User: Fold these one by one.
Assistant:
Number 1:
Amino acid sequence: METVWFIIVSVMIAAYVVLDGFDLGAGIIYLIVGKTIDERRKVLRSIGPVWDGNEVWLLAAGGSLYFAYPQLYASAFSGFYLPLMMVLWLLMLRGIGIELRAHMDNPVWRGFFDVIFSVASALLAIFFGAALGNVIRGVPLNPDGYFFEPLWTNFKLGTQPGILDWYTVMAGVVALVTLTAHGALYVALKTDGELSDRTRRVALSVWPVQLAVTLISLVATWFVRPSIKTNYLAYPIGFLIPTVVFASLALMFVWTRRGQEMRAFLASCVYITGMLVGAVFALYPVVLPASTDPALSLTIYTAAAGHHGLWVGLIWWVFGMILALGYFIFVYRMFRGKVQLEGEGY
Amino acid sequence: MDSPLLIHRLHFAFTVTFHYLFPQLTMGLAPLIVILKTLALRRNDETYNQAARFWARIFGINFVIGVVTGIPMEFQFGTNWAVFSRFAGGVIGQTLAMEGMFAFFLESAFLGLFLYGEKRLSPRAHWWSAVAVFLGSWLSGFFIIVTDAWMQHPVGYAKAADGSVQLSSFWELVLNPWAWWQYAHNMSGAVITGAFVMASVGAFYLLWGKFQEHGKIFVRVGVIAGLISSVTQLFPTGDGQGVLIAKHQPVTLAAMEALFESGPGAPLVLIGQPDIAQRRIDNPLIIPKMLSFLTYRAWEAEVRGLNAFPPDMWPDNIPLLYFSYHIMVGLGTIFIAVMVIAALLLWRGKLFSARWMLWILLLSLPFPYIANTAGWTTAEIGRQPWLVYGLMRTSSGYSHMVSAGNGWITFLGFLGMYMVLGILFLFLVRREIENGPAAETAASH
């Protein structure tokens, strides 16, 4: 049961990163590719009807995490107190940036919210990457299962690291680069003409960087957390994951070059999912490694809620997920195709 | 003032109080917008569609602020109340996760269609999108209330070996009688806010002399909905909630009423300031024996006062509890009076020319917000000193790893951020009201 929920929560987090990832990415490239007012409106319209729904995956994943692993939620959220509060402020700024921007037709007003939206999107990508980096690297858990990390200490690894050290900063960069490409491919897919071409060129020029940081991050992770190889050596089928990661990365390049936007975007989805699956595969059954003493790490067994509750949750989760997927398919179908500026709505 | 407990309480209290200013209008307006959409379909009258669109625009702005201030609430269970989350997550994780799965997905999927999809959808499909948003917002409220009701009156749980509580019966949790009374009371309160806001804006247009037709619709719908919800707020929902408090939280009842001494024929205090140290009420205005009657339907019934309980079981801020409760009840009574008079005038066909009454409706706008806030303060301060009633004290539930310094800096951050949000909200809503319901400028990306 603990394992089932480990998979469910991982799937929901992956869904969040893939979905909200492209609208975060659209925000990152927003000021770069949107040269005119109309182009910016097109970028916004491409994510407008869906960004809020995508962000709900964060809340739903957070809720499921809280439900399935209360101790992990308690420990991680209080331990990552400061960066999480900043994430909240960034989410707020980004939300009002998108939604309130159009309420007044004034260049100063629009320009202000444009910058808010784009900067908040980029910072969120970095924060989320650094958060994942922290979870992989491990946190200074006490024997009572809690910890508190300052924002930074000396940027080195060790038993008492900060939120930011060289490894987590690198993870933040990986996330920034990945979501930039992801968002660019989505915008290229949803727009046409000069804007689409320009966005595609952004994706192409980011690609070598993405390849480089992917390689660096894999090597760095190998050194930072040597225990990641345990699961891979025990279940060699796991080596399929890095294979998929690199194959999808290669296909991203090929398909972007050929202008096959839908395929390139899907390859990026697979790449992101592969990176995340690779990480959780290495961690399992640990959910929060301790940098202090491996024995203090939180595992799915120590952090999970009671069995009866997990069973009940499984029933409503399946039901709720079917409904949610239904809404998503419906909304994405309603707003399928390239965005147009004419007419009402997004 | 530098204790971590204090700042974690302030942190949650401030963010949740500010947050709830917005969902109460969301949940209150949603059914009223469905009514306007229904009237538009039935009567085939474009004025009703314009009215619905106008409120949809206000709803949209309100909803954005509600969403962005709502995200911190879920986070704070972990960030600021980690020990509580570890203790109770096995139970309330259910309802919080269900809110995301069943309410947020529904709401977010259909809100975009409802706000911006009117031309893409048939009138009937657009009506359904309004209903879906209404359902989503009311479901969201339901799961939150079930969560809070469990903290007020824990049911359906079992103690685990590690000291935490775990779910033992899902149906007991969801069918908690406390939850259903509290939900009814809370939703009725939300409709009061929606109705008063709608009537107030309508009265403003009528007094201003612009958008007369829309103004009349707003006042008519607002007054009828306001009358119904003001009455249901008192009876049966408020009464039902009160009976539960008397039964399960008698010390809270004593503190709310500032009843220091137990006794038969307990009086009801209408006005007066409680002096906790002297255990008396300054300049009281009381109705003899009324509290006994209201609580137990018997004039001579024995009501337990604060002296019947050890002081460490008393709510830790009795004056705030007492005043919140009295402000809530006082305003609730005034709402009924205002809406009864307005409804009589409406029935006699005199309301739209009765300027004095329109002024009263216009100026009543802030008071439902105050009453709803006071009501929630009564519920949450009344639960003290418990975080989960009878199971966990508030003083042992906060994140002990998060120092007061870290708590203060993020609290100050939220103060600043919410000030900006509040100003933006007022600014944008003021523009919409001034542009009026006839304007066709739906803001889109």
Number 2:
Amino acid sequence: MDEPANMKNLILLIPLLPFLGFLINGLLRRQLSKGLIGVIGSGTVLASFIISLYAFFNLDAIGGGTAISPSARIVGNPVLHYFDFINVGDLKIPFAFQVDQLSSLFLLIITGVGFLIHLYSTAYMHEEKREHFGRYFAYLNLFVFSMLLLVMGANYVIMFIGWEGVGLCSYLLIGYWFKNIDYTKAAKKAFVMNRIGDLGFLLAIFWIISKVHTTNFTDVFSHLSSFSTKDLIGITLLLFLGATGKSAQIPLYTWLPDAMAGPTPVSALIHAATMVTAGIYMIARSNALYSLAPITLNVVAIIGAATALLAATIALRQNDIKKVLAYSTVSQLGYMFLALGTGAYVAAVFHVMTHAFFKALLFLGSGSVIHAVSGNQDIRTMGGLRKALPVTHTTFLIGCLAIAGIAPLSGFFSKDAILLSAFEHNKVLWVIGLLTAGLTVFYMFRLLFITFNGTFRGTEEQRHHIHESPAAMTIPLIVLAVLSIVGGFVNVPGVFMHGGEKLTAFLSPVIPVNEGAVVSHSTEWMLMGLTTAVALIAIVIAWSRYRKYKEEKETPFARTLENKWYVDELYDAIVVKPLNGLGKGVNTFIERGTIDAMVNGVGRLVNYGSRQLRWLQSGQVGAYVLLMVISMVLLFIVQFFLRK
Amino acid sequence: MDIKYYIFLAVALFVIGIVGVLTRRNAIIIFMCIELMLNATNLLLVAFSKMHYLAGKATNANAGIDGQLFVFFIMVVAAAEVSVGLAIIVMLYRNTHSVDVNFLNRLKH
């Protein structure tokens, strides 16, 4: 039957096309024109999106099942085996893809939002020189390739390959303008912090291998009895450590705000919509392991809630557009982890999806603003852009409403699902979540009003150049805005519409539906009403305070917030400085004192020896005679005294 | 006389000769020291010849004659060597106007 083989090759094209795009744009970046580079870069991702759509609607056809709609269980094996990757003893790690409901959903998000951002980049990065333009798109395609590997991998090792790949591309893209030393430092910081998390991930993989001798998802999740409770807690905690690095949670979140050094579309794609969601994907994929380790789930929930609150407080006082959005991302990721920690895996994935829409929208919108004010990113010198940038303003407003969780935009459904789950699990976490929601609304609308309302506070030069962005930039904004509005309808909770929870049903083969305690409808209405009330109050307060811009007061607490609670300084003191000191110490005592001394010592010995041996051929007859005498004496001694 | 006194004397002369060859700078003095070494060995040979004669004169009237014969050879060789050496030193002086051996390092190249 040809069908499965065709499907298999088709699925292989999904990551392969962006990889080809990477090779072509990377190797031929000096030869191709900017238009062609843009077309190749965006076209490969668009093609992957189309194939992903086809796969999404034909999930049953993968592995040869019967044709049913995507919301039913997959009949047949969703694992596509391509070749044996590692074969050592009884450990077999194949290069295989698992295209089931969870991964196909992520595929759509990655390729769909990715394509919009590629399209946006063709206009945003237009002023770059040709080879740098090509380099940008090559890296971006490589990133999409790695992310696709990550979500499509059928075992932890392929996922890890993708995991590392996206970390690498994050580094390459943050440090895209490599001539600026601060940007390269930010890139290095991102990579190093990612790496620390990766250690956790690797250790978890080793632990899994030691217990079940395989890393395939289907095998690991069907042999859960091979793990003791201690094993499960250890593995899940280590996996979560990896997730904190990649998805910027406490303690490894400080790289994300610094990562705003990269171009804005990069921030949108990598640090809002895709890479940072890798941790969520990993935990959602491993939900079978996590459901058996409630201690870890508690840890995840607490850290998620704490991160959400911490980041929200910092965002209140940031004056760089992108930094506000960066902290907002960290905060929303905290929400997702809170959802995971309370067992609501579907809610977390739902929030990943809606967050991808509105956060990418917000970032691209901010890019549009930055483009309009000639590169300025400080909101204190913006203002009054509402009339000059109508499309940007409207879409940005829609994004703010979505993130605020105002019904019926997408953010409302996903955020309320999370808060509901938190309420069921632990009231304290719910309170933190509610508080953070209020703060989120407040700082987002603060950003909106300071940037777009009031009067323009920049230079005359900038005022002249204010212009709405070209179509290549506004079309993605509009598309994302539409998605932010309607994206929530895939999972409407039961209180509104019976059977509206399509997403939960869709993901049920991968994430079993939790038939546990359900809150009553009245409680749900009350919670939703409370959240909406908090949001509206926050909008009103922000409106009254920031409609006409005035300088914000510099209280000591405000300064602490502005300085990010001095966490970076703390890390510098307890980690960076000791490591630097250790490095210096090793350099002085071991590198220079021992190894160099030995190597130089050999040199000096040879020098000394040669100076003495030089007498053999000095040309001075006296030396030769002396040598003869000495040798005779030695011969004498040997002959008469030592030869007995 | 006991042979050991002759040996001491000969060895002392020989060592003086060696030290002289090694330390002196003047080529002619070095030559003299070489002669000293040769004569020291001559002395030693003659002394041993007498010793062997005294020990074996009852059986052999020509005991120990080898030593004295060898001394003749050494003297002849010494004379020949001196004539050649002095000729070389004269040539050396003609070229470098000194008999200082420290200047003789052309062998280095």
